[in-house]
Amino acid sequence: MNVSKFKALLTAVDMGSFSAAANALGYTQSGMTHMMNALEEEIGFPVLQRGYWGVKLTPAGEKIFPRIRELVNCEDALFNEIKLVRSFGDNVLRVGAFASIATHWLPAVIETFGREFPNVTVNVQTGTVDELYSGLESGRFDMVFGSRNAKYDFKWIFLAKDRFYAILPKDYPLTTPGVFPITAFNGTKFLMPGLGFDDDISLVFAENSVKPFVTQTYVDDPAIISMVEHMQGVSMLSALILSDRHNDSAQFVPVYPEVARSLAVAFRPDHMPSSTAKRLIAIMKDYIRDYDGL
After folding, report:
1. How far apart are CA 255 and CA 174, in angstroms?
2. How would you classify the pairing of strands 189-192 and 213-216?
3. Of 31, 40, 133, 246, whose CB has the highest number of CB atoms within 10 Å?
């Protein structure tokens, strides 16, 4: 099967529209429709629902969609790696990172690193938890900045605790002013963030014997907040994700007692970090020490 068809499918689902995806990819709408019909015929079952509202995944499509995203990301990573080697040889640090870390920490850290090592290129890629850690296992990344996850057998270097906040509708009543007891999630309609963040949250709920009614989502963090604003449920995100994010239509309330995910750098057990990788981590630790967003 042609990966370009899967890339078109991914774009259509992310944009929610054949016409928008066709415009973004340089196809005609009829060409886009024909491509998706051909893909479904090759797969052997429908993966898209079509309607006046646009397109969305069928239940069967939802089951294979994470693997489709992995396939497209792997192809993009391959061509990116080829470009890097052509341009810089092997003097490259290949870094995977959670989007929140790539947004709030890595730009300043890489700027400082670049002044010390102007001939070393730091290539940063974001993705889901599974995409990042499977990329580390396969050798696509030299290191991954993420949250410590017991499912993966890596060497971990601790960076910081990232406290969790309840995401609540604006008028949601608080029994305790200024905090949200974690037991208050019991019985709520809970919008579970996607992209692998559910591993961290599920662990917190299990450790505290909390059982909400979970609705699994496949959307990013701003979409979770928007869904809460529109009274579709409550959720939980971390301080780093919410850093510099101000919102008048939802409450961000610290969970009590304090619960957090452990942010860390992951390496393969058989991989010895290079001196430049160690220096990048040292700069990261210095930056976090002075960071006031957590």
Report:
1. 11
2. parallel
3. 133
pTM over 0.85: no
Backbone angles phi, psi at 260, to 5 degrees: -155, 160
- CA distances for 244 relative to 177, 195, 286, angstroms: 22, 21, 20
Domains defined along the chain, listed by start: 3-68 (1.10.10.10), 69-158+263-289 (3.40.190.10), 160-261 (3.40.190.10)
Question: pLDDT grade, residue 79 (50/70/90)?
Answer: confident
Q: Taking every pair of C-alpha atoms in the chain, what is the biggest distance, in angstroms?
A: 59
Residues 98 and 147: their CA atoms lie apart, in Å, by 8
135-159 pLDDT, tens digit each? 999 888 999 999 998 888 899 999 9
Per cent of the chain over pLDDT 90 is: 46
Question: What average pLDDT does the segment 232-237 reach?
Answer: 95
Assigned token pair, 177: 């002013």
Contact predicate 116/277, CB 8 Å: no
